[in-house]
Give the backbone structure.
Amino acid sequence: MGEGGGRGRPSWADGTVRTSDEVTLHYLTAGTGKPVILIPGWSQTAEQWTFQIEALSATHRVIAVNMRGHGLSEKPDHGYRISRLAADLDDLIHALALSDITLVGHSMGSSIIWSYLEQFGDGNVERMVFVDQASAIVADPGWTEEERLDAGAILSAQEAAELVMGLAQDGGPLSRSFVSAMFSREYPESDFDWVLAQNALFPRAYAARLLYDHAFKNWRDVIGRIRRPCLCIGARRSIVPWQAMQAMGRAIPGARTVIFEEEDGGSHFMFLENPAKFNAVLTSFIANGEETSQR
């Protein structure tokens, strides 16, 4: 992707909003119609939704947000908790007077949505898309292997703490190895370097603080109470067990689940590795839901 990360950018607009605790958030927006909010994962940026902004803005008002500390958003020394990022999302929604929203969260972006639902409800939300996020990152020592896979847990409490400590002191190598495990080996090196550059826009000390808060959450009780239409997307070779996304789909009444196979770019970043398939799945879910709601 490299400098092509902004392909199509001339038709996009940059915007900012101020949160309730006086932090400036940056976002990209394009198109008109019902709103779709794209929420990146940990250390990721709005720019990484390039292909989805291009595809969805033909029929919708698309808003890709940089959470606090990420991308071009302000980088205060406070607020690096999932609950605060969810409050930032609520501030964005109210500042832009949005309703009938499709929320799309990749990785930690899904956790932000779950926290938003828990704190603010689903009154402004029409449907949701959860992309490759475990309902619990840190495993309960008492879980069976099946329970661990269904939750999507990939770390012990000790491993999570050590990872956070390493990232807080990282000058680059640990971030590179951590993120590289989330991509297929076939992903172009130049594109991966661009992804790392986007990650680096979030200061490592703040990134580590947020990752700690993110890792030690269990969202299964929130997920089980969702009643809006949902799409759950996983990947066969992701660091997040694909079984977790299937379990999530079973937990949400009427949810649809799609698992990307390895040959389909089935990594944690399948929306970058195979944007054509990802966009087809995403636009079909949104369009079918809207057609159903209009009957």
About this structure: DSSP finds twelve helices and eight strands in the chain. The chain has one domain: 2-294. The longest strand covers residues 24-30.
